[in-house]
Amino acid sequence: MKRQLFRVFWLVILSFTAQAQTLLVEKQRFETKAFTTESGVTLPAVVVGYESYGTLNEKKDNAILITHFFSGTSHAAGKYSESDPLPGYWDTIIGPGKAIDTNKFFVISSDTLVNANVYDPHVITTGPASLNPKTGKAYGLDFPVVTIGDFVEVQKRLLDSLGIDKLYAVAGASMGSFQALEWAVRYPDKVERLVHVIGAATMDAWTVAALEKWALPIRLDPNWNQGNYYEGEKPIAGLTATMLNITQDAMHPTIYNASFKDFEVLDEPAMKDIRVLPKINQVLAQRAAARARLQDANHVLYLIRASQLFTAGMNQDLEGALARIQAKVLLMPSSGDLLLRPEGVRSLYDTLKRMNKSVSISEINGGWGHLDGLFSIGSKQAELAAFLAE
Amino acid sequence: MKRQLFRVFWLVILSFTAQAQTLLVEKQRFETKAFTTESGVTLPAVVVGYESYGTLNEKKDNAILITHFFSGTSHAAGKYSESDPLPGYWDTIIGPGKAIDTNKFFVISSDTLVNANVYDPHVITTGPASLNPKTGKAYGLDFPVVTIGDFVEVQKRLLDSLGIDKLYAVAGASMGSFQALEWAVRYPDKVERLVHVIGAATMDAWTVAALEKWALPIRLDPNWNQGNYYEGEKPIAGLTATMLNITQDAMHPTIYNASFKDFEVLDEPAMKDIRVLPKINQVLAQRAAARARLQDANHVLYLIRASQLFTAGMNQDLEGALARIQAKVLLMPSSGDLLLRPEGVRSLYDTLKRMNKSVSISEINGGWGHLDGLFSIGSKQAELAAFLAE
Q: Which residues in chain A are contacts of B305 at CB distance < 8 A?
């Protein structure tokens, strides 16, 4: 009895502590008019969602911008409600007392244009699934191609609207690193620190081809119909296949195999009938289908294109672009990354070093491959805190 | 004039030498009746093509079997005619005076069941594109699932028909290594030497999932029609996408990027219109489409399944299977292989070593990744010759 009371006591304390620690966040909406894309088209209006953690100080000089990865959203930390099963993707390092300390910093993160997760109720974005005011129907493929530079420009307008003229830091993983780097190149006097995680400085032939593999299944799905599916069946099968590709490319075989401990090669039903998938593929397909239900296929195609066209500075002169950087730079590739391989980031480090930039590199070794930038970022807590304290 | 005569003289000599060196090969046909697959279905007849180089000696103890890779054929060496642009895929190491010396050995290689290249006039195979005698139409997906074990059994019958009871060696790359290893496990007293190149001993979860990525585009192509397309349009778009996937997975980014020297990230037409692919993707798609024209989509699906189900010995006891091996083993993984990673082969080496088998390992370092097993095999000429001389 005494023991049970003791247990209840601790449960109450623990649950109180947990509640106190939950960072509750609210999704907000930002609209800007007459946005001209890098590809030269003026959209009458652009809307994106954003969220923030911590408080903007009076001088407005404590803002840290977080830019999201390919299949991500602005939800970098905290929960929308206590009952959310999981917090934002970088919650390990963003929050009170964490490396990106919300007791000190005003952390802000926005959904990109053409965000993949159009049917996630917490996502606000503008893209091919949005209504084209000229026709009253979804844009589909008439939406202009957008670039990483465009993502940055929308973020710039959002920050301007809040009176934030300078960023204490900008940090992003994967496609988020592209945006973060582009910020430092495009607005060198506005970015004091750059945290570039599992990223790249430019796309090479191999990565452009790899990204296209993600687009192929969508285009093959008959429901895709050249992007005109908003009034009919959606290309869920194609999009599911795309999600299968993305998940696998983001992982390392070692952790992949470790996470399927009960895997058996000799799958009897799959040996008896070609129409039956091996069990592991069935499980993976179900998971991918669940993700695909929140996403829009055209948006994914536009994200692929935005990534394929990325090179820091968005011109042919990469060295010239990198030379513009004034921010202190922290590069964090994952040693086992098979998608955006660490070699590219090591070479970026060498280039910046040669240019006498303030740059350091710290590789993540978590065993997840590319996903170490999300799942193993906690191992860099102290390093990141120190970098931000400098 | 004198000089010109001299030139003509040399041209004659050179062309004579070249002709003398060209190993001319002839495709042959092997048929066997009542073949029962590992999945338990009896096919009334099975036909495969084969070719051989060198001469079978009287004792019939100088035969070396070459087993082909996933998208390969029996064409391992030589040319079908002088005008062929390229010789067989392992011509570097098979021929008179080469590591697999056709002056000494009788080298034989056959097309597998469900060979991908059904519409290559030099390929003879049995699979879903073959006529089902019961219906008079192509089998389609009613063809039984076949395994690496089945491929071996067909080869066994072919060798039996030639009176070859023992193999001096069996050698194969990639999916060919699966067959070669299966030979050594299944017929330990008939295989004296095993050369296992860019291979594996069993499939892990990651590889099974990776292989499924190749199948996805075919199934999404509306022309695929659950495998019933033999009387209509073929699923060429899906198959082309599959070929794009396979080619990329078989290469290493370093060589990939080196082979696209004029690659430019900022692809203007691709930035202006989402419907226009980046130039590099257009080039790759054209190449893949050319390969797809010779292939059958269902056959590729069956090859994927055969590979997904592979584990040496084809039972749950891999160690028990490996323990059966009596052959001397030479393992040749590629250090940069991203598809069948060298870690697996290193671990196979450790296992065989622990079992006191005669095993050696020699990694290929050619920069091509998986394709080093084909393109850089020449670097192992001396080692291979020494192994075969023992």
A: 270, 274
Do A190 and A228 have their domain in common? no
* CATH number for A297: 1.10.1740.110
CB-nearest to A213 from B212, B227, B248 is B248
Which residues on B lie below 8 Å from A221 (Cβ)?
Answer: 220
Residue recorded with tokens 């998971």: A287
Token output for A245: 């590709």
pLDDT tens per residue across span A52-101:
999 999 999 999 999 999 999 999 999 999 999 999 999 999 999 999 99
Residues whose CB is less than 8 angstroms from the CB of residue B181 and which lie 6 or more positions away in sequence, other chains included: B194, B196, B199, B201, B312
Q: Is A281 close to B208, i.e. CB distance below 8 A?
A: yes
Please choose, from the candidates B89, B46, B85, B47, the residue with its C-alpha nearest in 3D space to the C-alpha of residue B66.
B89
Containing structural domain, residue B271: 208-303
Nearest C-alpha of chain B: how many angstroms from A377? 23
Question: Which residues in chain A are contacts of B275 at CB distance < 8 A?
Answer: 141, 226
Structure tokens at A268: 């009897």
Q: Based on the fold, state whether residues B178 and B61 are members of the same structural domain.
A: yes
Q: Choose the final residue of a domain: B264, B285, B303.
A: B303
As a whole number of angstroms, the distance between CA B274 and CA B293 comes to 27
Q: Are residue A182 and residue A327 in the same domain, yes or no?
A: yes
Number of helices (H), then strands (E), belonging to chain A: the values are: 13, 12
DSSP state of A226: G
Nearest-CA distance B386 → chain A (Å): 34
Q: Are residues A245 and A344 in the same domain?
A: no
Contact list in B for residue A309 (CB cut-off 8 A) is: 265-267, 270-271, 278
- Residues of B belonging to the active site: 174, 337, 370
In 3D space, the residue among B222, B221, B213, B179 whose CA is nearest the CA of residue B199 turns out to be B179
Domain count, chain B: 2
Q: How far is A206 from chain B (nearest CA, A)?
A: 6
For B157-203, write each residue's pLDDT tens digit.
Answer: 999 999 999 999 999 999 999 999 999 999 999 999 999 999 999 99
**B303: Cβ contacts below 8 Å, ≥ 6 apart:** B70, B112, B114, B115, B116, B175
- CB atoms A265 and B309 under 8 Å: yes
Q: Could you give the CA distance from residue A214 to residue B213 in angstroms, rounded to a whole number? A: 10
